[in-house]
Specification:
Elements (H helix, E strand, L loop, with lengths): L1 H7 L5 H18 L15 H14 L8 H18 L8 H8 L5 H15 L9 H16 L4 H12 L5 H6 L1 H20 L1
Helix pairs in contact: 1-2, 1-3, 2-4, 3-4, 4-6, 5-6, 5-7, 6-8, 7-10
Length: 196
């Protein structure tokens, strides 16, 4: 929990906060869950520490300046490390929907932090075949909503998200279960682009 407090502390230099996030991410990978974790090292994090870290690290998403992409990525990597173990089957089933709802935030720092988390998560190995339909059904309509909104700078972020090969959008398109959802969203997306 101490490293997550350092990550949240806005008065500290960005490089110190970034290092704290990297240490936290490594801690999560090694100590978060013992079952099925080839990287596990004793002791396993207790439930109270896990709850504290999740609360603090998600608040950290909104404490990163819009221009500090390295720190935003470090915070997002820690969040994604937790998501790997706790979404959707673990103790944080609402994590993905919470991140998607952050895209609606008027606070650009929080919205960009959430978008970076979603970008890293979708590009990671954590996204399984069973979770792809839920990801697509929640995320694409929200990205469409943001795309047609007047926030041009955030629009550029969404465009980069959609075109970045790391996001795994191509992987989503290859999943038979998602093609129907992608088709419906792409029709809505195309008609919105015509109106834009």
């Amino acid at each position: 929990p101490e490293m997550s407090n350092v990550a949240l502390h806005e008065e500290l230099p960005a490089h110190v906060r970034q290092l704290a996030c990297i240490i936290l991410k490594n801690y999560i990978r090694a100590h978060w869950v013992s079952a099925g974790n080839s990287r596990f090292v004793q002791p396993e994090a207790c439930t109270a520490d896990k709850s504290s870290v999740k609360s603090i690290i998600t608040r950290s998403l909104g404490s990163v300046s819009v221009s500090d992409s390295k720190l935003r990525t470090a915070v997002a990597m820690a969040v994604v490390a937790i998501m790997h173990w706790e979404w959707p089957r673990g103790e944080w089933p609402s994590c993905f929907s919470e991140l998607v709802s952050c895209l609606r935030s008027p606070d650009q720092r929080l919205a960009r932090g959430a978008l970076r988390c979603l970008d890293l998560f979708i590009g990671s190995d954590s996204l399984g075949d069973t979770t792809v339909p839920e990801v697509v059904s929640q995320l694409l309509p929200e990205l469409l909503r943001v795309f047609v909104s007047p926030a041009v700078s955030f629009l550029q972020q969404i465009f980069l998200f959609l075109t970045d090969s790391r996001t795994g959008i191509r992987r989503l398109d290859e999943d038979e279960g998602c093609k129907g959802i992608l088709f419906v969203c792409s029709v809505a997306f195309n008609s919105s682009c015509m109106e834009f």
